[in-house]
Amino acid sequence: MAGYPVYPSKLEVEYCTVFDCEFLWFKTNELVDMAPEAHSETWIQVGTGFSYTTSNCDIGNWLKVKCIPKTSSKIGLPECAIASQVVEAGPGICPFEIRHNFTNKFVENDGFRVVTYNILADLYADSDYTRTVLHPYCPPYALAIDYRKQLILKELLGYKADIICLQEVDSKVFDADLKPIFSSYGFESEFSKKGGQVSEGMACIFNASKFQLVQSSSHIVAEELSSNPLVADLWVAVQKNENLSKRILERTTSCQLLVLESVFNAKRIVVANTHLYFHPDADHIRLLQSCVTLRLAQEMRNRQLDLGKEVSLLFCGDFNSCPGSGVFEMMTLQNIDCDNEAWSSKPDEAVIDLSLHNPIAMETACGTPPFTNYTSGFSGCLDYIFFEKSKFIVEQVVPLPSVEEVTQHCALPSIVFPSDHIALIADLKWV
Length: 431
Fold this sequence. Notes:
Number of strands: 22
Pfam families: Exo_endo_phos, PDE12-like_N
Domain 2',5'-phosphodiesterase 12-like N-terminal: 1-87
Strand order of the largest sheet: 9-10-8-7-22-21
Protein name: 2',5'-phosphodiesterase 12
Organism: Daphnia magna
Largest sheet: 6 strands, mixed
Low-confidence stretches: none
Shape: globular
Structural class: alpha+beta
Domain Endonuclease/exonuclease/phosphatase: 115-421
């Protein structure tokens, strides 16, 4: 689509790397021969580099990319590919482009910009049930991943963030789209798949000019719950209820943990990224899942302290928990009593005689907006950027779209919103 980046998503090279290669982009409105190697006087060079951002001037034209593999001493045989269709008009100005006005440059080196965003996995969007029941108001073409991923990439690139935590990331989208395009802009990325047979998970993408990766790990929460001594008290409480034990062990929820070090001040950040269980009657399960993840993150933080490092905690994700929930209380108020109403959100799975304490005081960077998820059947605040409040101050929160914007096409997703969630963006500065 016009106004969106295009790039070679399926490319293999030998004896060099993709980013050693030279890329040339061409267009023509008179395609006679579809063979990529065919010569034509009508091909006009329009760009160079791994990706090319189209414009309205390209509408109705075919695109061709030419890749010349290189090393410092050798040049290989070039290969060409032609797009399977012409450039078409885009959907017009999207609300995320208005948000880009607040992120037109990167944050200074004494801080960083963080994004958390559930991008709606193709696994869940590409089904008859989604098209006819969950999101019947969204045109089928706008639910297709080939359409949505163009919007997602343009949106994310325009935020000029330093740390991006994504949920519901299809493994194929990570490998073919997110990782290569962000690599071309100087970012590194890590992917963590959920448990079970699903092909989606979480991704953390970070600016390699500002951070270097120290450590990365992925954990299936149910496996940690039943085996890790860090959460032995939780497991004792869970085992008291057979229904609860069975249900929570069947969950495929995972968490992603990274230790990033600033290349400017050597301060380290433990970044936790998760997507908690969604069911409305599962506040107790989400509270247990978030506690498992939090303890794993805190243990990683403690190890960094033992090494003499200055370290802080950042916890992002789709928590599927509204303000006032047990998860939110534990993160911000630090204590959950044994009689908290979250423990009995499903009476036959009630958690008995368990109190929780979060030793690290945390705040939510973007506050508690009216909604971060907006569909025809539900709207509410489910996503958060929690940060260690003694370590950071919030310099900027990028305003969220208005109700009028999200309901312009009934609800989310739509032709201008690629997900049923909205990205949260905040600028943090070390104290």
